[in-house]
Design brief:
By secondary structure, the protein is α/β, with parallel strands linked by helices. The chain has helices at 14-28, 33-45, 62-76, 81-85, 109-121, 138-146, 159-171, 218-221, 237-245, 265-273, and strands at residues 87-90, 93-96, 127-132, 150-156, 178-182, 198-203, 250-259, 278-284, 290-296. α1 packs across α2. The longest helix is centred in the N-terminal third of the chain and has 15 residues, at 14-28. The radius of gyration is 21 Å and the shape is elongated.
Length: 299
């Protein structure tokens, strides 16, 4: 982030830094340029983003400006903001994120909302949840944090991702109720499966088709883990694998929730229907895209 020639170090107040950086990000094509600038500057200063508004006339120190410059440089290269600062908010909770996990997104909150809604209408002393492909653990953690009766098994094929999920469970004081485990979808040891199977199974699986790889935003395509994004020629490969085995792990009357990509809802419905699951509902995200699908296993 080069300083204009006429600017002395003390002239770089927080307000001026934010104004300059927003403009720089706009010209660089960075998403949400003002918000991104605020997140990075708050990180460089070691304060909350909201605290910036009371400090507009303050000038950061040179070491703080140097840290901020480096963050801005990387962000302008489309490195994800969440990876640069090491955390991301999801369902009003703060999560550790690293390049080993997919960055939590607002649309995935639909899975949490619908899992909690199902618990509210099916009261019981204990719910057993399986989070397939947990990544950062944000889904399992958010559900367990909001519903004290939920006990979760969170699986992933990536040991690095599981380390992040375990740390997030610990940070939110849920380590005793969330068990992280390396597993490829439903390849679970028998002792992990509850006697009555799982009440709830949730998954935000890979669902981007290989043919759409080049159309993804650069910050996603270049920096987020490919294994968490792509699922074959049509993006449906993992849904097919889930459908093949899910009925062996979901109890009768239980709920399966999956996130899907744009235009995939009908095809995913058909995949699960062919394996005996009944479509319960479809839920749209804020952009009107059918993003979360609910299925039950009829008794």
């Amino acid at each position: 982030m080069p300083d204009p020639p006429a600017a002395a170090p003390n002239d770089w107040t927080i307000g001026k830094l934010l104004t300059w950086t927003r403009s720089h990000f706009e010209s660089s094509g960075v998403d949400e340029p003002r918000l991104s600038a605020e997140i990075l500057l708050a990180h460089a200063l070691g304060c909350r983003r909201i605290d910036l508004y009371a400090r507009f006339e303050q000038a950061p120190t040179e070491p703080q400006r140097a840290t901020f410059r480096e963050l801005v440089r990387k962000a302008a290269e489309h490195q994800p903001i969440a990876y640069l600062v090491g955390h991301k908010e999801f369902y009003s909770l703060d999560f550790l994120v690293t390049p080993d996990v997919l960055i939590p997104r607002p649309e995935t909150e639909l899975l949490v909302e619908q899992a909690l809604a199902w618990c509210a209408t099916h009261p019981q002393d204990r719910y057993d949840l399986l989070d397939v492909g947990t990544g950062s653990g944000c889904i399992a953690v958010a559900i367990c944090k909001r519903q004290a009766s939920v006990h979760a098994v969170a699986t992933d094929v990536s040991d690095a991702a599981l380390a992040v999920a375990a740390e997030n469970a610990r940070r939110h004081e849920l380590a005793e109720r969330i068990r992280t485990m390396r597993a490829d979808l439903f390849n679970l040891p028998p002792d992990v499966v509850p006697p009555g199977k799982f009440n709830l199974i949730v998954s935000n699986p890979p669902y981007v088709s290989e043919t759409d790889r080049d159309s993804l935003p650069e910050n996603v395509r270049k920096y987020e883990p490919a294994a968490a994004l792509f699922a074959g020629a049509d993006g449906l490969d993992v849904f097919r694998r889930i459908a093949t085995d899910v009925t062996r792990y979901l109890r009768l009357g239980g709920l399966l929730l999956v996130e899907v990509g744009m235009g995939q809802a009908k095809s995913v419905d058909e995949i699960f229907a062919a394996h005996g699951l009944k479509s319960q509902a479809r839920f749209k995200d804020v952009n009107g895209i059918e993003r979360a699908l609910a299925f039950t296993l009829p008794a």
